[in-house]
Amino acid sequence: MNAPWKGAGTRDPFQAFVCDDHSFDVVRSVAIEMGWPPEKVNKGGLRNAVQTLSISASPQILFVDLSESGDPLNDINGLAEVCEPGTVVIASGQVNDVRLYRDLVASGIQDYILKPLGPDHLRESIAQAQAVFMAPRLDASGERQHLCAAVIGTRGGVGASSIATSLAWLFSEKAKRSTALLDLDMHFGTGALAMDLEPGRGLTDAIENPSRIDGLFIERAMVRASDTLAILSAEAPISQPTITDGGAFHMLLDEFRSAFACSVVDLPRGMLIAHPHLVTDANAVIVVTELTLAAARDSIRILSWLKSNAPNARVIVVGNRVHPAALEISRKDFEQSIERKVDVIVPFDARLAAQAAKLGKTLAEVAKGSKAGIGLMQVMDETLALIEDADGASKTKAKPKGASLMGKFTDFKSMLPAKKDKKAALES
């Protein structure tokens, strides 16, 4: 699918938006030295930049004056929403604060130049920006094989969503892979809730307008949980049925393959009937079950279905919320019933589950070092083992960080501001 933005070769090399006459003269003179059109240096600062770039293509290098901005960090997010992937941003301003500088650079700005502008400093910053723009970008799909893991619960309440959110968090934090979490429970999904996020309308918009799905849509629709983890989910009204042929889901997974190193799909078991294609491209299918008679029956049915509909996927059976003293069926008897072993056991720990819910964190994040945490790590290891030999990548090999604002967008490290509640915002 072609992205709506222009290729790097057809972009303007440089564009600037400044607030004062001195800055205008300095930036314009340097632009002329570089052989760039002087009319690409505009008056108006950040506000004009956002308005202009919302209706026109972004340049390779963007210079923006933050002098008239009351909240530079927040306003940069507005700029990020209208810029295209790959744009390298240089900012300038009057505030001489090292904390602001660090925050701006952390948000993805290439450089922050203190006013009044000097031509030498500007030339040096532009040279660095050019080097960043021209540097080869590592693409997850080209650097190593994409891993898609579908998580399915055999029964309601077995904790499949807890496993899915934990697995996504582990991929992003422990394996250092950019990760997308797709929660396909349109009405009652808990993926966003488990991470103290608002679900947003991203998934709803995708289903209502599948033709809009492309790389730019993904950047804007997904909600950021961390620098390396983003979630796409919904909280549709109970009175609003989901009407889709599943094409939107397939398109979303296609975009994930080019944008992320890993994707985790929290797949309600009912969707296996309506949309069987959702597991055909999965590398791994994690079947989450409890050790009960009803779960054994449904595990047999789902495992049989997977043999026919996802023959190339590795199936990993996870016994979740297992309490040794209160087993309805022993592990041995359960394995005999489903005619295969249970690959991983995640013990039940009510205290850690309650703590995770109160903190708005995944169980894996809270359960570090516990028996439950060890079990969740085993789920990650079993899943990653599928592609370790194929791509030669270490489980802990970090993906290089992008240096520019839009470069971070390309790596999905800064998609949309995380929507946390007031308490979480104060704590952060």
UniProtKB/TrEMBL annotation:
InterPro entries, per database record: CheY-like_superfamily, P-loop_NTPase, ParA/MinD_ATPase, Sig_transdc_resp-reg_receiver
Glycoprotein in keyword set: no
Stored Gene3D superfamilies: 3.40.50.2300, P-loop containing nucleotide triphosphate hydrolases (3.40.50.300)
PROSITE patterns reported in the protein's UniProt record: RESPONSE_REGULATORY (PS50110)
Modified residues (4-aspartylphosphate): D65
UniProt-recorded Gene Ontology molecular function terms: ATP binding; ATP hydrolysis activity
Name of protein: Pilus assembly protein CpaE
Species this chain originates from: Sphingobium algorifonticola
